[in-house]
Fold these 4 entries.
Entry 1:
Amino acid sequence: MAQKLKDNNFEYIEKWSDYEMLYAGGRKKAIILLNSPDYSNLGDHAIALAERYFFENHFPEYDFIEIACTQYERESVKIKGAIQKEDVLLITGGGNSGDLHLRIQDMISHIIREYRDNKIIVGPQTMFFVGDAYSEMEKRNIKSIYEHHPDLFLTAREHQTAELYDVLFSGDIMRMEVPDIAFLLKYEADEIVWRQGALVCLRQDREHCTELTRQEIYHVLKSCNLNVANYSTLSETEVQLGNRMKKVQRTLETIAGAQVVVTDRLHCMIFCVITDTPCVVLDNKTGKMFAMLKWLEECPKVARCERLVDCKATIQKVMAADVPNERILVKLRAIFDDYAKVLKKFLVEKKEGKNG
């Protein structure tokens, strides 16, 4: 089998250890994670790690198989032939639903349209539309595709997406609001960590919108007598299924070594919460940063900042907080136990197919 797959020139055969599992003869039913990240964003890789942990823990009767984004794009017909009716398709969570990241949304729509005979779960997502004429057309397209699937479950990771789901989709589609699933990740330092300096982790893509410049943030942090370093949660080297855990762990270690972090990247903020690192949060274009803070209202080490004039006070406030984040993490993780119960009910329900 391996040689046949290699002969088909799929470049991930030696990098993506789940590849052969999908095509194995006589395999048992599986939860198949589609759109699994094979790119540099370590936040999305943290989501995939947490999804694997969650579904393997709560649904041990299923195998768990990941299909890379590139693999799906290149081999969608072959993949469809290998997916069995009792398989459950899981579309990975994240912030790529809507019309801001159309490549991923097109893949999501394709999966939902093509797999009408399989139950499909969309993991905790942010859905966002830019708001132009094309957005309205894309909304109508997404609505039509989603509502014609008989067994679709949508998950929102913050309230603005949950409200959008309610406006856009009929009540026939099951849905639930939970936090970002990366909160399930845990971090334990191998040794005592001595925190030093500040990290600034800002987007450099279409989601960036903060009015505070990097130079202004640097200046404020230095006025707090902090050494400042730039940081990114985008990997500079290739991330594969086999090295994903190590890459995310190194990111957690780096963030755990900071006295404070200023960021407009969602998973940098989540990594701060996991590692008990003070964090000042700036919003981004989709509004998901401030929307996600609903889940962290009892977390004094995380605070929002909208204006330069408030930046120094906000930095000092989160650095002065001495309440560990463990209690809020326990509460967030408990929500996923309820999520598992709802999904188990969804998986055993039988529905009539829809005409389309």
Entry 2:
Amino acid sequence: MLYEPLGGALLYAANGHVARTPLTRQRAEPLLHRLADGRPAPVGALLAALPPADRAEARRLLETLESFRALTRE
């Protein structure tokens, strides 16, 4: 997965797909770095590490990455 800041948002890409999130790089990076380590984690635990105001958008980011087949559920 790749990501790049764009204005006040973040573009992210995986498997040939690109999407945009209003999360800034600083707000999204902890989640993205945690995903990059490859260890399984419950969605609730991933979201709990973020400020409450960012959780809904972070969930959408995870759902989008799953639709890109960049993540899988167990």
Entry 3:
Amino acid sequence: MADAKTDPLLEDFKSHIQHEDGMDDRMYSKYLEFARQYVQGATGGQKAQLVLMVAALLNDFRVGDADLEAGLDSLTPFFVAEVYNEGVDLDGPADQST
């Protein structure tokens, strides 16, 4: 986990959102941290572009509501494509006992 000072995506993230005066980098780092966890759980990896998209949604919808849920749901095709393209097996090894 990267902190606000060393997070390699922080400056890239801030350049893609409407940066608010007075917003602390630590808050943006929290968005990136949660986005990494979300993307890891959804795809088995942490592709930077997906992390940035999720973090941007978290920034836009700071209070969890239907809009945030709809925004995250809209990213499902990207997650599916990432898993398909990377060949990540989310179900684990196939059961060979049958």
Entry 4:
Amino acid sequence: MRAKLSTVAVVFTAAFAVEVDGPHAGAASIVNRLSAEFDDVVVYSHENHHQFPWTEDAKDAFRWRWPGVTLVTHLR
């Protein structure tokens, strides 16, 4: 068994916890892989994206799907 790596941070511009298209599925796949390979994963994102904002429901979906991954949102 391989040891996990330490920390990684990624940036996505919009909410993607609920996959509505290919780019959302790709982002989710990346977070799936990173969370399997790293001890500490941090996702930074724009909270108020014009098309896919991080609503409380979207944040809840993220926390449910990736309980060990930190989501940090900022107003754009």
